[in-house]
Amino acid sequence: MPVRSSPNSPGPARWPVAVAVVLTLGLRLWFVLSMRGQPFSTPSPQVVDSWFYYRWALDIMKGDFLGSDVFFLRPLYPYLMAALGANILAIQLFQVLLAGFSCLMLWDITRRVFGRQAANPAALGFALCGILVFYTGALLYVEITVFLGLASVWLLLVASSRWWRWLLAGLSFGLLVICRPELLVLLPAIVGWLGWKRAGVGRMALMTAVALAVIAIVPLRNYMVARDPVLFTAHSGINFYYGNNPDADGTWSPTAELEQGIGFSHERLKRASRIIDGRERRWSEASAHWMKKGLGFIVRQPKRFLALVGRKFLLFWADYEVPNNYYPETARAGSLPLRLAFVSFGLIAALAVWGMVRAWKMRRQAALVYFMVAGFLVSALVFYVLSRLRAPVIPFLLSFAGFGLSELRNDLRRRQTGRLVLGVGLAVAVMAGSFLVPVNRSRYSAQAWTQFANIWLERHRAAQAIPALNRALAADPGNISARYSLIQAYAGMGRVAEAEAELKRLAGAVGSDAAAQSALRMAAARVAIARRDYARAVAGYEAELTENPDNSEAWFMLGLIYIDARDLERAYECLTRAVELDPLNDAAAAALARVRRSVLGH
């Protein structure tokens, strides 16, 4: 049994935690400021979930507090964004402050469970963990989830006889479940642990009642506004199917049944997922349908499913950060503080596994930390592995890593060679294994630089976009989206010959894939506009709409052509359809408003 310092003993000076907190705040603030004006800090449809939350926050600020439909994505973060005025820098600075508090709570949790010797490296690891620095600046619910997870555990550890701490523990856990609904499965385990600790029935009941009351806000609101009994979000069953289907690879990846057209769009996903057997269903029915399809895959292909679960398990422990929405690669290229934050997931996992092994004898004492690791691992196995979904487990792994490191240090000091060799050997094996998990890095690299470029294109800065697109194509020459965006960039700059050359390359790479053929039609029409061959451009977009009548971009481009041709009635029809299909397309909405004013003026 390890010797631990008492949480209440004076012990050594607390300067290490002060250093860790200052380093946490300083590195993250430096990172956020280094990203000002960059695509990373730009609200953009290219960062699909972040954009969805941002627009949702704007709607809340305009007075649409409850909304009119079932929550499609998890609701806590957009309300937080709205409370901060949907100001990007204010949101990022708030998340920097949350990270500082998270570091302090991690230190105290680790100190109480494993002792100060483990707490200091855990807090320092938190400060220097690159992926945690990265997500502090991202407009996603990662930072708030990290904070709420740590707050829930810390409050339960310090609650004692103070009723208000039990109330806050319930509040924190309830909000955590709103961020990550699958963690609700931890509530019975937590209550069981509290029973073993003899926390008292009244206190346990207070914590549980508050947690359930907070969680209940979501289904009650869903039923109140939509009369649809959806427990958390309309996306739940869809997410399950993304992670459990014949083509799943353990990460989030599009499926032919749900993804139509170039790129990803929440609006297209909403339409595709609700149309079942030719009829639009309620969200509760649609979510249940996709959940049932996922379960059907598991029943019909159990061997394939078990292999998939095995891959998810390996991906969960892999050093590589599987990106989605935000890409560390492009941010790291332009940020010195992110490059200085050298602590990787593989290093943390290596030490954490040894720490979990050594802590097993004190598992009742460390139960809450084990529970949180298990909760996030089970979530990954049930759904899929993504960096942003895995990141909130890192603080709890750091707690074990700090303990594992302190035990190695003690073994060295006591000259317990056998245990030291075993610990170092296991850590080295885990870290080496974390680098060997196969991941299609070139695909993600191409996605990263394509997204980076597309945000520059949205800002009409093609000169910055073109090098990024060439970098994307160097990583993955067959990436259709990158080639399509490069054609758009050249066409927009009037570099018609280069656009036509890229169009030929795209035509040679298309094959029979429907999305690729759609990209080819759209690209050919865009090049026709650059050549001022508007008749051919119209024919190209109309051909695309014959195949994909819900392609909002094609409707938008047709509308712009008709504006130039002074055919305002047809422009109005096209732009109206574009906005109906994609209400978040600000450019289409602005063009429609101009046309509407012109039509009414006449």
TrEMBL record:
Residues 81-219 form the Glycosyltransferase RgtA/B/C/D-like domain. It comes from the Bacteria. It is a multi-pass membrane protein. The keyword Transport does not apply. GO terms for biological process: lipopolysaccharide biosynthetic process. TPR repeats lie at residues 446-479, 552-585. PROSITE patterns: TPR, TPR_REGION. It is found in: Cell membrane. The chain crosses the membrane at residues 12-33, 79-106, 118-135, 141-159, 166-194, 200-220, 340-360, 367-386, 392-408, 420-437. The keyword Transmembrane helix applies. One of its GO terms (molecular function) is pentosyltransferase activity. GO terms for cellular component: plasma membrane. Keywords: Cell membrane, Glycosyltransferase, Membrane, TPR repeat, Transferase, Transmembrane, Transmembrane helix. This is Tetratricopeptide repeat protein. InterPro entries: LipidA_mod_glycosyltrf_83, RgtA/B/C-like, TPR-like_helical_dom_sf, TPR_rpt.
